[in-house]
Amino acid sequence: MEETLFNGIVMVQPDGGFRLSTDSMLLSRFLTLPKNAVVADLGSGCGTLGLLLCAREITCRVKGLELDEQAHALALRNIARNGLESRLESCCGDVRRIRELWPAGSFSCVISNPPYFPERSGKVSARHPTARSEATLPLTDLCAAAAYLLRHGGRFALVHRPERLCDLFCALRSSGLEPKRLQFIRHTAASPVSLVLIESRRGGRPGLRYEPDFIEFTPDGAETDDYRAAYGRKEPSCPER
Asked: What's the whole-model pTM score?
């Protein structure tokens, strides 16, 4: 299946695998992305975040690291399909061995859409165990890898579940990453928080800014202006009935 993103960028998605989702779309827009940024995408899958960032900012360069060989192969296909060989790269390897793979302080930004659930949490499907479970990428290891890769002042953005917020803050700070921005995602304004977006800074001073909640739908099921903008749509869709 092929889906058009922004600025002529398209993405081939795996049959039966994870499709383009709200968490990736919002995370790619949430990251503070300076001109000429060099970004590491940890657990990059088929290259979704890298494609979205390249579509968003023509000066950025993204290097993805993915453990699953099939997802890595699809990422290479997406890179070639879009002619992004000079800006987007996919490497097959284990984030937990990052010190053997990439040099320290070599990135201005790090981004990740990581597994959400701890190992043996009972919330992991048999179909996608590595994508959902921290068995192959614990949160503490992810944050340590991000800190290792970032130069001083660099930023690390990730999306996660709201019930893991305390774990997130602890893991970030223990790695020298200071949480600086936080945003909650809600289905409607009256819905509970479904996702959290956090951006931290390597060597940053304490001080957390709370961004306004991102609301996906109105009470009658119509897409909000913010939601349409995140997906690059200008016209509202018909409310669900």
From this structure: 0.90
